Amino acid sequence: MIYAIYVLIAFSVFFALAGVVGMLRMPDAFCRMQSSTNIATFGMLGVIIGGILYSLCILDLNWGFAIKLFCLGVFYIVTNPIAGHAIAKAGYHHGVETVEMVCDKYGEDME
Length: 111
Known about the structure:
Blueprint: H1 2-25, H2 29-57, H3 63-93, H4 105-110
């Protein structure tokens, strides 16, 4: 079971590393924000699931800790994409510079 915890943490490290590379290589703020949202969502997801497994297997069925981590994971998965969308919408309204957009449905709805 300890190997499953290691795999989940490696999963998180991979997504965090990929997100950092994406933040460095993306051309504009909106693309970089998508990479940072990936870091926050998928990077923490593996750590939280690994923590749940750790609390149940290594800490001799510490259910209170596992339930707290599960609630934290659900809250994190629900709120992080919403927060990223709200920040992107605010950036769009304030005229953050972007590379050429192929499709701008949000701008069409605002007119």
